[in-house]
Design brief:
heterotrimer, B: 307 residues, mainly alpha, MetI-like fold
Chain lengths: 310, 307, 436
């Protein structure tokens, strides 16, 4: 994308008669207040969610939505959640942690390797590879569920966490992202000279590409984390046993089987109401938010690395 | 000769490094996709004789047209809203970048961490006048009863709201990033020539990031067409059945799992894939997606999908 | 070599002729079964697993009621993984017994004559012309729930007929504004009024024919009698579980009476999170009768079932679990629930179990008078015309009926909308829809 500076100047000379224009201070204030307003609106739901478990079900109705109940509220809500099937929620939390961690590792490594190879080698079918990767990003997951279930059954992995881990480790976004990153941020000459110095292809990756792509690796890991931490659909289909559930799956389950939000389910003897559900929700949402916040800076830096290079 | 040998050797190692991803792509992407297509002509409850009539049967399902209307209405609001709002926000953020504004950008992405079942819980509360953290706003609009909101004709707005907050923040961040990549020389030149903030935005910045905007449009379009989790969970909430087979993906899911009609479900998924695929191919072939020179643009675009 | 061969032969036989080998294996090894239950049934199921240790290996799995059909269809694809016995919502039996799904065993040959007798017509839901495809866990027959304090205060007597019920409604509208006889915006309207009035909505006559006729006089009389109550707000257009209704009416103690299922007192009237009616006020009465009828029929809202998989190697052991749940004192009365309560939460469908449950609920001081007799009286009067159907007849109340009644408040229009919606669903699944 090249812009002819002269052309730009010409256009603007014509339209502004060469006068320097400054932004009106009032509109500046308006813009800033709008930006701040939207930030406040964006924060409201999260604040509610984090505060809700501190209150009792009754207090949620009668007290201000932003009132803080008590620290004991969190403990009580956690205790009640543990009543559900003898504390299976702790198991769900652990499951979520280790499934997600494993997926993030496998997905990040395979995607970055793939991106590197496609950008740095002269292997065949590059375009086929890229297009099929792109198609995989667009296929609705519902369409693949049944074939995937049949496949997993063939290798006896239904109701085994590895089914979800393997399926979710396919990371077409990541592979594409890595490909673009490597093509733009590492000039081919670098590889050539390394080869002349006797580097083999593995070393090309470990000694050149990898050290130069730490922002990429953190980006890959970041998106793999947020995509899988909250994933509902695959675990739902592949893991019938509740002891294998993940936290989001368990939350959906609590949703359906307790009268917290859905009193129509009627009879229950499990003390799970809105504060408990909100706590489970916060346990899912807060880690994603923390990941967002700590990696936001890195994220922008990663995105911009290519352009800065030029 | 020696050189050829050298190259072959080199690619051997390359293939080896590519293999893990290729295996995943084949077994968990392409193979199931092919199996899904082969599923279509199999006999089922609704397509007793089997065959490719499955496509016609799905389109004639009495829930297809309502779902079509719902999704069309949803897209008509959602896609333009997303594009205009996100670009507008990114441009505003870009007017006078200052360090404290990074807190704003952080705030914008917070709603994205509330997804799936958690989002339904939160939206249920927000739209419930007895519980809502935005009670005064609801009152302002004369809403004192949840039943005023939870009506079928309002669902489209509720779902637009849910989908919007789920991804708008990420897009703002990404489009802001794309604006940052514009060379400062260009902007300086324009400024020197007396370009107003508004003109700078419309005449210089927008054309320079047009590719990102097209790409975002395609992804927002594909995502909107496939809306599933939000209506599906709403449907199992308090107003049970309110969003039954509301969207295409839900209809596809219901065909498969309540009617046992896997062929119909697959057929519908294929129909859904077509417009998204056309959009994606458009992006690939009409813009220089595969040309290395503009690589850094693509990178930003891709990130969005993961979100 | 020879030994290896014989081992293989046995293994092959076990796989190929599973059903034939099973009885022998049952003698030699301990049978094992997998049970799927929802959260309220979990304590009982876990207790059962403990009791059977050494006799039957019982694996208990928790599942969401809505998941079963999806999961079974997946298992059918790979031809394994089915649980032996499943607790589920009442309508599931129609889908599960469909030959294309084939996951409900005909229990006619397994049930002993004593068991059949003990279920009595409590199990008629599970019976069709071809056999018995499930056993009922609990009955959710509707009765009249009323607030004795308000009745006394307002000088009302318990209505015996629907006309008397409507007359109370008219009086409330005139003299007691703000008080309520319940809400109509959910499935409760079906269980409380349409079903007891014998309105043909889901009357499956055979696997290929269902009667849906909202123009029948049995339907139109419901709209005619109750429309004024909806107009005056005595019957609220919202759902019982609408947060606004809960707060403005339920928790405000303004429900004078309402028709509701047998679990209503324990799970809606009493809990702090729903209506929170104080102790000593609530009582039950038999259903009011529709004019010109001989029987004061009930409808049903819920009432779970157990189905046994035809793929189970140990169907009798699987059925034993269901019988335990509806008959054994340890589940019905003594098992401890997570919220600190004891025993089965709902009205058992099995006569001996019912007697045990009666002792428990009759002692409960929450109620102004013993709620059990009215429940018992209605338990044999659930109108049997409404049947399990293959489509989601319950979800359709939310999808078609509730939005319409909320918007226009017109009962007949909303019932018609429901009828049209389920007719479409029925035809899509291969039923012929007829008017009679």
């Amino acid at each position: 994308m090249t812009i002819d500076m002269k052309e730009v100047r010409r256009v603007f000379k014509r339209s502004t008669n060469g006068k320097m224009r400054h932004q009106h201070p009032l509109s500046n204030v308006l813009v800033t207040s709008w930006l701040v307003l939207f930030a406040v609106v964006s924060l409201i739901p999260m604040i509610w969610l984090v505060l809700a478990p501190s209150k009792t079900d009754g207090e949620l109705t009668y007290r201000s939505p932003f009132a803080f109940g008590s620290l004991k509220g969190y403990l009580n809500a956690w205790k009640h959640l543990q009543f559900f099937d003898d504390g299976v929620i702790a198991k769900w939390l652990i499951n979520s942690l280790w499934y997600t961690a494993t997926i993030v590792i496998i997905a990040t490594i395979t995607a970055s390797l793939a991106g590197f190879v496609i950008s740095a080698s002269d292997i065949r079918f590059k375009k086929t590879f890229l297009i099929s990767t792109l198609i995989m990003m667009l296929v609705p997951p519902v369409a693949l569920v049944i074939p995937l279930f049949v496949e997993m059954d063939k290798v006896n992995l239904v109701d085994n966490p590895w089914s979800v881990i393997l399926i979710s480790s396919l990371y077409p976004f990541g592979a594409f992202l890595a490909y673009i990153y490597y093509t733009t941020s590492i000039p081919p000459e670098l590889y050539e000279s390394a080869r002349l110095d006797g580097c083999n292809d593995f070393k090309l990756y470990t000694k050149i590409a990898l050290p130069l792509s730490t922002p990429l690796i953190s980006l890959l890991a970041f998106f793999a984390f947020i995509g899988n931490w909250a994933n509902y659909f695959m675990p739902y289909v592949m893991l019938p046993s509740s002891e294998n559930y993940t936290l989001p799956l368990g939350l959906g389950f609590l949703f359906m089987s307790t009268p917290a939000i859905n009193p129509g389910v009627g009879a229950t003897s499990v003390p799970i109401y809105k504060p408990e559900i909100a706590l489970a929700g916060a346990l899912i949402a807060v880690p994603i938010m923390i990941m967002f916040l700590i990696s936001q800076k890195r994220l922008i830096r990663g995105m911009l690395a290519g352009s800065i290079k030029e | 000769m020696a050189k050829t040998k050298h190259y072959r050797h080199r690619n051997g190692a390359m293939y080896l490094m590519l293999a893990p991803y290729l295996l995943l792509l084949f077994f968990f992407g392409l193979l199931p996709a092919i199996m899904g297509v082969l599923e279509v002509p199999k006999p089922s409850m609704t397509n007793a004789n089997g065959g490719w009539d499955a496509f016609a049967i799905v389109v004639q399902d009495f829930r297809f047209m309502p779902a079509f209307k719902h999704v069309l209405g949803f897209m008509a609001i959602f896609v333009p809203l997303m594009i205009i709002f996100v670009i507008g926000m990114a441009l505003m953020l870009d007017i006078k970048p200052s360090p404290w504004k990074k807190w704003l950008r952080m705030a914008y992405i917070v709603p994205a961490s509330i997804s799936g079942a958690v989002a339904v819980l939160v939206w249920y509360v927000i739209l419930q006048p007895t519980l809502s953290p935005i009670k005064p706003i609801l009152r302002f609009f004369g809403i004192t009863e949840a039943s005023q909101i939870w009506q079928t004709e309002n669902l489209v707005y509720i779902l637009v709201g849910m989908a919007f907050f789920a991804i708008a923040g990420n897009w703002i961040l990404i489009q802001y990033g794309s604006l940052q990549s514009i060379s400062s020389e260009i902007l300086e030149a324009a400024r020197v020539d007396g370009c107003s903030v508004f003109q700078l935005a419309i005449r210089i910045k927008l054309p320079l990031i047009s590719k990102y905007i097209i790409y975002m449009s395609v992804l927002v379009f594909a995502g909107g067409l496939q809306i599933f989790v939000e209506p599906q969970l709403l449907n199992s909430g308090v107003y049970q059945g309110i969003a039954n087979s509301w969207s295409f993906d839900q209809l596809s899911y219901n065909l498969a799992f309540t009617s046992g009609d896997f062929g119909g479900a697959s057929a519908l998924s294929i129909l859904l894939l077509i417009p998204s695929l056309l959009g994606a191919l458009l992006v690939i072939y009409r813009t220089d997606m595969f040309e290395g020179a503009q690589g850094h643009i693509k990178k930003k675009e891709i990130e969005v999908q993961a979100i | 070599m020879k030994r290896k061969y014989s081992v293989m032969a046995v293994a092959t036989a076990a796989v190929v002729g599973g059903a034939m080998v099973a009885p022998m294996a049952a003698q030699a090894a301990i049978p094992s079964i997998t049970i799927w239950v929802d959260a309220p049934r979990l304590p009982g199921a876990k207790l059962y697993a403990q009791i059977m240790k050494g006799k039957v290996n019982v694996k208990v799995e928790l599942h969401g009621q809505a998941d079963l059909l999806a999961k079974v269809q997946l298992f059918n694809r790979v031809k394994k993984g089915w649980p032996d016995v499943v607790f589920g919502p009442p309508n599931d039996v129609a889908v599960l017994k469909n030959p294309l799904i084939n996951n409900a065993l005909n229990l006619d040959k397994l049930l002993t004559p004593a068991e059949v007798k003990n279920f009595g017509n409590g199990n008629s839901w599970c019976k069709s012309s071809t056999g018995t495809y499930c056993v009922k866990n609990d009955l959710a027959q509707t009765v009249l729930w009323y607030d004795t304090k308000l009745f006394k205060e307002f000088g009302y007597t318990v209505p015996k007929t629907m006309e008397e019920f409507a007359a109370i409604g008219a009086d409330i509208a005139k003299n007691r504004p703000g008080y309520s006889l319940g809400a109509v915006g959910d499935q409760g309207f079906y269980a409380s009024f349409l079903w007891p009035s014998q309105c043909p909505l889901n009357q499956e006559k055979s696997a290929t024919r269902v009667v849906i006729n909202t123009a029948s006089p049995k339907c139109t009389r419901v709209a005619k009698l109750l429309q004024p109550l909806v107009n005056s707000g005595v019957l609220d257009k919202r759902s019982y579980f609408d947060a606004g209704y809960i707060k403005d009416v339920g928790q405000a103690g303004k429900i004078v009476a309402n028709i509701g299922p047998s679990w209503w007192g324990e799970f809606v009237l009493r809990p702090a999170g729903t209506f929170a009616i104080p102790a000593g006020r609530i009582a039950t009465a038999p259903m009011p009768i529709w004019a010109g009828e001989k029987v004061n029929y009930s409808g049903e809202w819920g009432g779970g079932i157990y189905t046994v998989s035809p793929h189970s190697k140990y169907p009798r052991q699987a059925l034993d679990f269901a019988i335990f749940m509806v008959s054994d004192k340890r589940n019905l009365v003594t098992v401890k629930n997570p919220d600190g309560s004891f025993g089965a939460p709902t009205f058992p469908a099995y006569t001996p179990g019912n007697a045990l449950w009666k002792a428990k609920v009759s002692k409960d001081t929450y109620y102004a008078s013993n709620p059990f007799p009215a429940m018992l009286a209605q338990s044999t009067k659930i109108f049997p015309g409404e049947k399990p159907v293959r489509y989601d007849s319950n979800g359709a109340w939310g999808a078609a009926f509730a939005p319409e009644i909320l918007k226009n408040g017109d009962i007949q229009k909303a019932v018609d909308a429901y009828g049209a919606y389920v007719s479409n669903l029925a035809q899509q699944l291969g039923y012929e829809v007829t008017k009679s």
